[in-house]
Amino acid sequence: MTKKPKSIKTPPTNNELQQRLDNVRELMNEQKFDFYVCFDPVNIYYLTNFAFYVHERPFLLVIGKNGPLKMVVPLLEKAHVIDKAIADVEYYDYYEFPAPKGENWFDVYQSIFDENLKVGIESSMPIGIVNKTPGETIISDIVEETRIIKTDYEIGRITHACKIVNKGLKKVLKMCRPEVAEFAIFQECSSTMTSKIIQDIPDANFKATETMGAVWPPSISHEPHLVPGIFDKMEEAGPHVTIIQAQVDGYGVEVERTFFLGDVPEKAVEPFNVMFEAREMAYNMLKPGTIMSDIDSKVRQFIGEKGYGEYIIHRTGHGFGITGHEAPYIAEGYHRELKPNMVVSIEPGIYIPEIGGFRHSDTVLITNDGYVKLTKGPETLDEVTIEL
Amino acid sequence: MTKKPKSIKTPPTNNELQQRLDNVRELMNEQKFDFYVCFDPVNIYYLTNFAFYVHERPFLLVIGKNGPLKMVVPLLEKAHVIDKAIADVEYYDYYEFPAPKGENWFDVYQSIFDENLKVGIESSMPIGIVNKTPGETIISDIVEETRIIKTDYEIGRITHACKIVNKGLKKVLKMCRPEVAEFAIFQECSSTMTSKIIQDIPDANFKATETMGAVWPPSISHEPHLVPGIFDKMEEAGPHVTIIQAQVDGYGVEVERTFFLGDVPEKAVEPFNVMFEAREMAYNMLKPGTIMSDIDSKVRQFIGEKGYGEYIIHRTGHGFGITGHEAPYIAEGYHRELKPNMVVSIEPGIYIPEIGGFRHSDTVLITNDGYVKLTKGPETLDEVTIEL
User: Fold this and answer.
1) Least CB–CB distance from B227: residue in A80, A100, A326
2) How many Cβ atoms sit within 10 Å of the Cβ of residue A380?
3) What are B109-150's pLDDT values in tens digits?
4) Given A119, A204, A246, B184, which is the most exposed site by the fewest CB atoms within 10 A?
5) What is the pTM of this model?
6) CB pair distance less than 8 Å for B128 and A139
């Protein structure tokens, strides 16, 4: 297996952001767009290093065929954007939302380009913004497309983010005992990860930083997206399932483990082993050239043959990058090839009412000849059975 | 002045949610919609009590002229929605994103209604979802419209949320001294507010709960949306400006204060007094019937006459409800009347480079004959000058 890449903790350089923009412009050129407009804060962050939350005052990034980026920003936020943006940006500020006639965000926006042009837009652009966009608008998620293959810099940042969640997982497994409350786990795990983030990156952008650590005790682990109550308690045996996620100064990753406190119930052994084998099967297919839907189909088929098909409620994996959930998808509906420098989760799951949930998830880098796991933790049934 | 309403800390009843839905259906009827579709998680929360984050797997709430709500949900999330939703909901689940042909979210969505109908949609609906919506789609933000006037229940929840931020403000003013780091303030203030939330509402939904407390020291307080660094330190004198915000189990409010540590610099006295008078002027107009743009215009005119016009960078106020930033807006571009049971901020601000920022903000309820402030804190220059 390939060696783990080196961690990177520094902000992106101008060159890094220029390379991302060049990739976007290459696709703009192929699709003959005169402009491309981003509304999605994730795409704007990717291209500018400026992170924000969407409120009623829109931010719009307008990319021409060449020259600096143009950004429509509320006056109130201009200093914030200038402080954080690394790219070469020309600002078009507007006073307020809503503003008197002639001074609204769309007046400024519409002054940038005219009606005779071909303008690419995101499928996530709100219809209210699409309707104010001049030119012929064409939906094409080209920034999302370029984000699928990570640069060396991004891989370094993701590798660092994985160290943070690894530490979170270690903490949770260490403190998790029957009767311990969810709240204590959440607090300790978040504080462990946040402290490490601050030590490593003292000027981390907290608009692009978030941590989450929680455990689903066996009575609810068969419902992976039910939210545990903060006063819920850990139980005897298992399966407990922990989710540890972080967005670390802009890069999102996760590590998840099924584990047992003391005993492994008889009924949990087989589903654990089936999950474990399904996971091995997915890893064995993990190399450039494999069609992603084939992985998910094979995993589903295998779990089905073992008699657990009805307990599958999600795909085998998803991508990571500046978010913890994005393309590519290791899903039956996603017929594309794995390529080097994609980063994905591998997390086939089995969820059985009355017994519980079974899922390990790791953040995994696709390399030239296979893959390398960037997260780590106990894996085998023996390793995940914690002695009390 | 009217008495403060009583705090409410309990979840909404079925009747409360039914009343909200009835209000939406009244507007649907007026606009002759056969269906209305919500994508915005805020609107879905308002009508169902189910809170979530938007990922690639869409949730869609389809409202017909009568009968139960219909909700398109990812299979993985169904148990979570059922656990939290209070309204009468019929579920349309889909397996995954992306899914094999015929099993995608839009296949399920399109099975709900047909091409011959008039369908109202939000202006924030992503174009990719609009394009998969059957029928004649018409943009009309009717749920946002109904949210502008608060029910008695909502006012009770907002009153409670204000108690949380009041406590946060008290804590910040108590601990804020020169050399104290931003990080300490943020941590202490968040933990004070979070502890109180958990004491008051042990089963608070943490997907609809958030707290924020930070102080802009005088060297950056003239840029209210610049984000202070976590190792930034409080300074001598001022103006320091603190923002305390919380979304408390679904209800968002804020309280903000300009304050001084020890001395008030000579140059800060006049702008503070102008801000203070502008604020009084806004309060004096705060009653049903006043046109909101008139308040903002008068405030701007007054500040301009005093010679500080160029230092205004935002409107006088905005609404609160299930978010901390929403309609109505006390802004020059918003020509609507104040009505009883609206909740707004009053926060005219002056921001002078080299001197600092001047802004108090409160969460204020409009009553039948005036208003009542739901947040509290020191106000006059004397009161906000903290002895060292």
Assistant:
1) A80
2) 10
3) 999 988 889 999 999 999 999 999 999 999 999 999 999 999
4) B184
5) 0.95
6) yes
